[in-house]
Amino acid sequence: MTHRPFATACLAAAVTAAAAATLAVSPAAAADGPAFLDARELPRQAGTAWHAGPVSSGVPDPLPFCVGEALPGATSRHRAFWTDVDTNAVQVTVVERDEAAARSLAALLNAAVKNCAERVEQQDPDVEAEWRDFGRVEAEEGARVQGVRTTHAWAGNDVHLFAVGRDGRTVTVVHWGRMGTFRDAPVNAFKNTTRTAVNKLYRG
Q1: How many angstroms separate the CA atoms of 155 and 176, rounded?
Q2: DSSP state, 75?
Q3: pTM for the structure as a whole
Q4: Hey, which residues does 47 pair with through a beta bridge?
Q5: Are residues 112 and 69 in contact, defined by beta-carbon separation less than 8 angstroms?
Q6: Which helix (H) or strand (E) holds 121?
Q7: Ramachandran region of residue 191, left (φ > 0), alpha (ψ -120 to 50) or beta?
Q8: Domain ranges of the chain
Q9: What gap in Å lies between CA 34 and CA 170, rounded to an integer?
Q10: Does domain 6-203 bear CATH number 3.40.1000?
């Protein structure tokens, strides 16, 4: 995976989400499948509100940092979120054929996050990266929150939070990111978002 500066990725994601939000999405299509997060269920961002695009089929463009290449394009559905400043998020949900496949996908996604920092450093010598495990979240079959901080020699720090959770044969991953360090990451609030995201899966 080629890692881009977060400011560029943030802008690209916001433009993509804003463009997608202008497309007509039928109520039936929006309601089909597991329920997604609402903008108000993301960690509060001082001085700005969250905006949400529609629930769309396939994987996001651009792909989410760290986990994008592990997502199955044919069976993924996603929703993008953004603020008016430097913070964005995306949720991707996959309904697998059975629980064994869902467990395998959740393990693959968690491994992709855990190995992301090392992978980024190998691919770009101008980037330093650090991974942290923020632990499990009790919700349905469980979820895990992890974080990755990247420092660009010429573009400052980015911080990312990831949640991977499962309910039965349904897996969801939430990626939150902004410019900053781990001190700027709302870990506790993101764990609440994670719990909400996983608990909503059965409502589909």
Answers
A1: 19
A2: G
A3: 0.86
A4: none
A5: yes
A6: helix 116-123
A7: alpha
A8: 6-203
A9: 8
A10: yes
CA atoms of 74 and 59, how far apart (whole Å): 8
Confidence of residue 46 (pLDDT cuts 50, 70, 90): confident
pLDDT at 77 over 60: yes
Look at the block and give the residue holding tokens 């929006």: 30
> What's the pLDDT at 121?
96
In one-letter notation, the amino acid at residue 63 is L
Q: Residue 101 CA to chain centroid, in angstroms?
A: 20
Cβ-count burial of 14 within 10 angstroms (0-12 exposed, 13-18 middle, 19+ buried)? buried
CB 160 within 8 A of CB 146: no
Q: Please name the residue that has the structure tokens 């069976």.
A: 75
In what helix (H) or strand (E) does residue 77 lie, and over which residues does it extend? strand 76-82
pLDDT over 70, % of the chain: 84
Which amino acid is present at 111?
A
The predicted model gives 116-135 an average pLDDT of 96
Distance of CA 32 to CAs 26, 27, 28, 35, 57, Å? 10, 9, 6, 8, 11
In residues, how long is the chain?
Answer: 204
* β-bridge mates for residue 204, sequence order: none
Whole-angstrom distance, CA of residue 49 vs CA of residue 87: 10
